[in-house]
Amino acid sequence: MTRVFAINGSPRLDKGNTGLILSTFLQGLELNGAEVDLFYSSRLKIRPCNCGHLYCWNRTPGECIHKDSMQEIYPIMKAADLLLIATPVYTPLPGDLQNFINRLTPLLDPQIRFREDRTRAQFREDVQISKIILVAVGGWWEPENFDTVIRIVQELAEVSGVTYGGSLIRPHAQYMRKAGQLTEEGQEILRMIEHAAQELVQFGEIGMETLESIRQPLVTKEAFLGDWYQS
Ligand SMILES: Cc1cc2nc3c(=O)[nH]c(=O)nc-3n(C[C@H](O)[C@H](O)[C@H](O)COP(=O)(O)O)c2cc1C
Question: Which domains does the chain have, with CATH numbers?
Fold first, then answer.
């Protein structure tokens, strides 16, 4: 049984494109036997990491000084096998989600070592997470818009000493719907997302072909620009 801790960083909660893709992915994971906990960073009270002294490493190891929503979710996160970070690209991240990522620091054990010449920590012994995956949507045309967000999630996995399990990205996600209804291509993308969930639970990873089909262009660059100026 895989336990999934999912956080959705979209201020539009389940109504946005992040919510559409994430809910399909999570349903797919549950159908394949995973147990899911889902939180919305903009609904939680997450103060910024601002003691400035790494107290959670030096003074009160593993404990953050801020008493807010993070205290309720730390135990749930620690028990999860998979951390799933879902977000719209906001050049690069919505503020609440960035606060969430910063506040993961107490979960890290600062027994620093070099891995591939980079300064790295690892999750503390009581943290079960072994993989981190990104689900991201963007409004702009090209997949390169996601590079910074992907790098942030890869870096998080690398500094925590766990596997980066890939990024499920959907550029110009708004083209999955027309007048509020899913288009045929939109439905096909959602089917591929269900397939990605199945692959993840069955094989421990999502195939490149599946990821490619989820990010495929739904409109030409020229049509994208035309629509932009017409709307
Ligand atoms: C502040 C802000 C910054 C954004 N920056 C980018 C960006 O750099 N690249 C991109 O592809 N989309 C960008 N977008 C568009 C959103 O990613 C897009 O509208 C997405 O569908 C929003 O997700 P949601 O529907 O879950 O709210 C930005 C949107 C906002 C509000």
Answer: 3-230 (3.40.50.360)
